[in-house]
Amino acid sequence: MGNxxxxxxxxxxxxxxxxxxxxxxxxxxxxxxxxxxxxLATFGSxxxxxxxxxISLALRIQDIDPDHVERLGFVTGAGALVAALSGPLVxxxxxxxxxxxxxxxxxxxxxxxLGFCGLAITAWAPTVPLLIVAWMFTQAGLATxxxxxxxxxxxxxxxxxxxxxxxxxxxxxxxxxxxxxxxASGFVGNNYLVFLVPGAVGLxxxxxxxxxxxxxxxxxxxxxxxxxxxxxxSQMVFSPREYPDFAWNWLGRLLFNFGVTFATSxxxxxxxSRLTDSGDVADLxxxxxxxxxxxxxxxxxxxxxxxxxxxxxxxxRIFIAVAGVVFTVGAIILAAGGENLPILISGAxxxxxxxxxxxxxxxxxxxxxxxxxxxxxxxxxxxxxxSTTLAQSFAPMLAAPLLVLGAxxxxxxxxxxxxxxxxxTLIGGTIVMLFVRKSN
Length: 440
Fold this sequence. Notes:
CATH architecture of the largest domain: Up-down Bundle
Number of helices: 16
Structural class: mainly alpha
Helix content: over 70%
CATH topology of the largest domain: Growth Hormone, Chain: A
Largest sheet: none
Radius of gyration: 22 Å
CATH superfamily of the largest domain: MFS general substrate transporter like domains
Oligomer: single chain
Number of domains: 2
Strand content: under 5%
Order of helices and strands: HHHHHHHHHHHHHHHH
């Protein structure tokens, strides 16, 4: 790792030199081959991840501990925590990788191999503690592989292609959420195939990207300061004063994700309370599937529309502001829609449309405002990920007391929750529109 004096000198030099954001090198447009292999790898890796979350882990927990299926929350929560914490660390390590294969491909390769092996161990795990550990390894591997694809985009995409690629990525992620669960459901009854068949799809498509997309040899790139524990911890935060555009977008993204999580975490329970006498989700029957399909259609459509139009018009912030307004309208419709199914579906559809536009366009904005994009893309993309994971971790806990405010008996105050969700997304979109200056 080098002697401490040298490390401290390098760190001090790095801190001084990073006061000014380094602009990315002029970039040529990437080829259609790069884009489509990237999109296929994204699709495959999401299938490998979503299938266990959607169905396989629930089947496994019922098999291992049928009397305590609520422990599934510990399994998925532990995996999400590992993915969140590993993001910036893997990003920093990837930034500093010097190899003939480049900086990103080695992590994509190792990550998908680790994730696939983790899926095999998850399928075998005979106890809940072992299941938790196996799923933590799985999510660490899959998160590393998927993160490498985003790091590669930060390295190579010119500004005029970022919206298009983000839109396509958002589209296939939505399709993967349905395809992964559907694929796994075809192998119910076989503990291994229900995990490994979706995992194999992710493995093959990610390895295609690794094998066919070449990166420049990074062995002669300037050496960055080595990673020590103190340095790593310092790099997991950033200075809003030095990078205001990145900071404002981070805050806007955090608030928007809080609103999205408030609304989407309880949508199924909300529909059950409004449309059934018992309030039980089981009584919704096929309506759950229909709502999921409609949601995927609108989210995927919003991602494609927002991504392509933001590139075509060379405008991004206005799409985020519009997404905040559309989400707000949808949330208000849900809050005031009573028991009218068509009205409730229209409200949910607007929410999903706004989510699709936001997810695609804001990903492009992140790449536009990324500090030190040539040398520290992995680090800052990892830090940016906290704007999603913090919302997904804390919004459901904050929603619990909100649901009982002013409620009587077994009723829940879903109306209040949707109004607060609307306020979060509207404020988040407004922040991005007014204060992020580097992106159009």
